[in-house]
Amino acid sequence: MTRSEIAAKNLDGWFALHQFFRTSWPALKRQDARRLTEMGAEFMGLLQRWSRLEEGWSRSYRIVGGGADFLLVHFRPSLELLAEAEREIQRTALGDQIELTYDYLSVVELGLYQLTADFARRTPPPEDPSELAEWRDELDGQAEKAKETEFARGRLYPTQPDDMPYVCFYPMTKRRGERHNWYSLPLAERAAMMMEHGLVGRSYAGRITQIISGSIGFDDWEWGVTLFAKDPLDFKNVITDMRYDEASAKYAEFGRFYVGKRMRAEEWVEFGRP
């Protein structure tokens, strides 16, 4: 086993589901004002109940462009609870008036590139495959200690800052081309590039927060990135700055970007009214 074959250890937190919907406006226009109010109030009640969950949360956002009208983001401790959230939406009266245009399933994660690289440097992986299990167990123990820190828990079980109402979501993948292949790089190089990448993000502290969720084996891309900001122009600024670091310039591929603003639960009472 060579160091280039070592996967960086990840910590996993809540499961995440991003749902993008388009509204069936002709169907809503056929409803009278009283029925629209009832439908909105029912949906408002659902969102308010979700905001009081012991673990996890859901919020709604108006999307501008992107072929969608709004986004629902759900964080839950299990896949089963995400599936229940899907069903609860479908059971509402408004569920008949909206169409799912895109969704993204993932798990909130914290990549431990530097921890893994430091451990591999101090304790190189054994050449004998029969000894790998013990080596991996020791690495897992180091990761579990890291998971108990306040920093890690804040990343794995995130909240949205009240003063950052704007949202940006996009999926991404690390490149595996003939010329540039992230997964064939030595671990130390990957760790160094991710440290540089993180420094760019930290320069926007107080202006942007992010949630990174892993989706290998869950969706078509490898990660989902959710950003919250006070000013939507900071999405453009931070993503532009990050494009110039090596981890992005050589090894990142991006999907569609969605941008919007948080909706208060009470706004759903007015939803669909002319």
Overall description:
This protein is α+β, with helices and mostly antiparallel strands and 274 residues long. The protein has two domains: 3-13 and 110-262, Apc35880, domain 1 (Alpha-Beta Plaits); 14-107, Apc35880, domain 1 (Alpha-Beta Plaits). Helix content is 36%, strand content 28%. The protein has nine helices and nine strands. The chain has helices spanning 25-29, 33-50, 79-91, 113-122, 132-147, 150-156, 187-202, 233-243, 246-249; strands at residues 9-23, 57-64, 70-76, 98-112, 166-174, 208-214, 223-229, 252-254, 258-263. An eight-stranded antiparallel barrel has the order 1-3-2-9-5-7-6-4, surrounded by four helices. A hairpin with an 8-residue loop joins β6 and β7. α4 runs antiparallel to α7 (187-202). The chain is elongated and about 70 Å long. The termini are far apart.
Distance between the termini: 64 Å
Named CATH architecture of the largest domain: 2-Layer Sandwich
The biggest sheet, with number of strands, parallel, antiparallel or mixed sense and barrel status, is: 8 strands, antiparallel, barrel
Kindly give the count of domains: 2
Task: Count up the helices.
Answer: 9
Percent in strands? 25-35%
Outline the low-pLDDT stretches.
none
CATH class of the largest domain: Alpha Beta
Strand-and-helix sequence, N→C? EHHEEHEHHHEHEEHHEE
Q: How does the overall form come out from the CA principal axes?
A: elongated
The percent range for helix content is: 25-40%
CATH homology-level superfamily of the largest domain:
Apc35880, domain 1
Main sheet: strand order: 1-3-2-9-5-7-6-4
**Mean pLDDT reading:** 92
The CATH topology of the largest domain is Alpha-Beta Plaits
The class by helix and strand makeup works out as: alpha+beta
**How many strand units?**
9
**Cα-atom radius of gyration:** 21 Å
